[in-house]
Each structure stands twice: as C-alpha cells, then as structure tokens.
Amino acid sequence: MSFFKKLFSRGGGKAAEEAETPVTATEVESPAVADLPASVDAGEAPAVSVAVEVPEVPRQGWFARLSAGLSKSSRSITGSISSIFTKRKLDKDTLQDLEDVLLQADLGLPMAERIVEAVSAGRYDKEIDPEEVKRILASEVSKVLRPVEVPFAIGKQKPFIVLVVGVNGAGKTTTIGKLSAIASREGHKVMLAACDTFRAAAIEQLTVWGGRVGARVMSRPTGADASGLAFDAIKEAKADGTDILFIDTAGRLQNKQYLMDELDKIVRVIRKQDETAPHAVLLVLDATTGQNAMAQADIFTKVAGVTGLIMTKLDGTARGGILVAIAEKFKLPVHAIGVGESIEDLQPFDAEGFARAIAGLEEA
How many helices (H) and strands (E) in the chain? Predict the structure, then answer.
C-alpha cells in the first residue's frame, strides 16, 4: 500500500505516481519571505509561485531511509552492545552495562529492564552473541510499538479539522506543509489556518507551503487573536467545501501557563463551530529534545486532548529511543515519523521496521 493511501486512509483522488518530484523543507522555505504578504485575507487564495529544480537521484526504499535516519541511535546502541558482549560471559556487570546503554538511548527504565531480563533469561554465566542481543532488543521494542502503530485516518466529517500542536522548533509548520502536500496529491481539498500568530515567520512559511500545494491559507497579521482566526477558518472551510483543515498553533512552552491557556481557548472556540472538533489533534515532537518530549506529551495531552503523535528529526539524534519510552508510557497512536527534510522522509510509522532499524538489523 502506498504511503499516501496508507496515511490518508479515506483515500480517493490522484494516484501517488502522478505526484510531482518531492521538495525538501529547505527548498520550500527558500523564497524570500520579505516578498510575501504579511497575511492572506479570508477571501484571497495565496498567490505564491515557487519554482524549484531538483536533480534526479535514485530513490531509496523506506527501510533504507529509516535505517539511515536512525543510524546515530543505532550506532550508539549496537556499537556498545558489541563491545559489552564480545567474548564476555553474561554476568551482573555486563547486564548493568547493557541497561546503562539502553537508558542513554532514552528507551526508558521499564523498557531497559525488560530487555535486560529477556537477554539474561537462561543465559547467565554464558557467552551470548551480540547479534542475538540485537534481535532480542528489536523483538522487545516491537512488542511495545506494535499497539501504537496507527495510520492517520481521515473521518467522514467535512471539513475534517486537524489541530497541530507542539513546542517551537519541533517542526509543526513543516509537518503541516508535508501533510497538506500528501493530502492534495490524493485529491483532497485542503485549507491551512496560520494560527501561530506570534511568529511572522510561521505565517510566511505556511503561506509558502499553501502556494506550493495549491491550498488556501487563512491568516491574520502577527499578534492577532489566534482563536478568532481558527473560528473564521472553520466557517470559511465549511462554506467552500474544504475536505481537510489543518490549524497551525504557536509553539507553546509547556511551562508557560498563559500560553497553554490560550491553546485551551482555541480548542473551546473550535467546538463552538463544531462540537465534535477538532477531529484530530496531532502532537509534533522533536526527537532531539530527548526526555523533554515526555513532559510535552503529558501536558499537551491534558490541555488539547492529543489523539496521535508525529515524531520528527529522528535523523538528528542518538537518542531515538525516546519514541519507545513515550509509546510505552502514554499509549498514544504514532501516525508518522520523520527522518529527513523531504516529503518522502515523512512516512507512516512502521513498528517492526523502526525496531529493526534502531537495533541495527536488516529488513525482515
């Protein structure tokens, strides 16, 4: 099943093979934002033309890109496993060393203890092949991740309202751009609401994405009321037959109560238009933040009612195990992960593939 059909399971529209050459986030943001309007009024479509030439390059399969993206995490874990277990018997010290390695990868204490227990079962005071340890690691990680491997499904509501939340720098706006590109390629009519009114750059970036994918963008000047904009965007989306409305939000710092209060206000205002909305609340997490992502998942779930996760920047950290720790603690659906800047580097989450890649194993 193709990425597009799997992620947007309501389906329909253009075939994935008709999609134009993927564009990286860097390329999309490359036009001079100074040349863009500060806002796009409710009645206007964004008039942005972005011409980007991308050289033809061989396309890797997803598992190859996933393995490459997780290489920092994998090398950190598997390199240590090899040094710990090569020509050494399994004893208290080797097991403690293994647990330390797993904790350093941010897999979390419960996961680390379970892996150590599985490795030690029936093998104490015996030599164990490092490759066997890797297989056990992959198996235990997969057990935790399989229940949260959930494709992002578009419901029957029209417009289907998707609220996207997360802290500054997590990649919310870029993720919205990628998702809207995918949705547009599948034939969905998409609207974007630039409710991160605290940052002019976020408004401009979303406007560029809208122009690129042919999506209408609702925005207001910097500092405008975000909840009011969300209200107007839903009203307009209903009027013009929009299929999917993505609502960007400011990068809330979870320790800033007044910002979290405003996010709560946005949710309440959305429900004045549609009491069942938002129909999906996507939390975008930056893997490079490590354990701080745990706190983000906790507070955003409480404030906004997160329905699913997208984890970005897994290619930029040696602590990619944080996704496992979050999945185990919060049991939230993981819809997609990002291991690079191009649209194709955002893919539906594959629990088995992730587990094998982080353990340094080949594709099953």
Answer: 14, 8
